[in-house]
């Protein structure tokens, strides 16, 4: 029996004065078990008692949304680091609901990105103008093949990890010493160009990078370039842009660049990798 016919029968039984429980029994006896249930019959009898004899379903409609996507978008963009728990407290909904609305807005959870330095407005303007000058110069004469870059990196060399072993049943495991809390490491300076590696060297234990070390490194790089890329040595005076200008271009190193190698400083690369243009 479809719903429309069942509702007519229920209305008829109500007008006869039949109780809801008796109506359930009689309907199921005549039309088969599970045709009507107590909850459905009770709900319709409740409507009839309130003098609502319409047999049509009441309009349900969608519940009013508690989360306005535009308000949520404004709130998230004002502080992207807020968690779904914090946002759910603001709207009075569950974190899962907030997550679903954020996905509807096209938002994706990403981890913050570390950068070496935070530049101010004046620094950004200076770097922009410097790079713009280099781009204009590059159109007149290509400089990409004349760039030599240098950077330093700490490398752990005592970082052995435990490995699984194939042993006979009952055979004792081989023991290895647990690594120290502060593992041993060495600093390596690497120089490379657009063609690949030019030179690398490890800093001896107990020594620090200073002007004297850089002068020796520059001499070694120039000797290797004379063999690997001899045409670079016969080019115009070079430009160098170090990662740490106060340390690299101070006093002795600056004179060494200008007098011994006839190099010039390349502006605009500060707080970035070292870069030499030959």
UniProtKB/TrEMBL annotation:
Gene3D superfamilies attached to this UniProt entry: 1.10.10.1450, Ribonuclease H-like superfamily/Ribonuclease H, Winged helix-like DNA-binding domain superfamily/Winged helix DNA-binding domain
Domain called Mos1 transposase HTH: residue spans: 4-52
GO biological process: DNA double-strand break processing; DNA integration; double-strand break repair via nonhomologous end joining; mitotic DNA integrity checkpoint signaling; replication fork processing
MF terms (GO), sorted A to Z: DNA topoisomerase binding; double-stranded DNA binding; histone H3K36 methyltransferase activity; histone H3K4 methyltransferase activity; single-stranded DNA binding; single-stranded DNA endodeoxyribonuclease activity
GO cellular component, one term: nucleus
Pfam families the record matches: HTH_48 (PF17906), Transposase_1 (PF01359)
Protein name listed in UniProt: Mos1 transposase HTH domain-containing protein
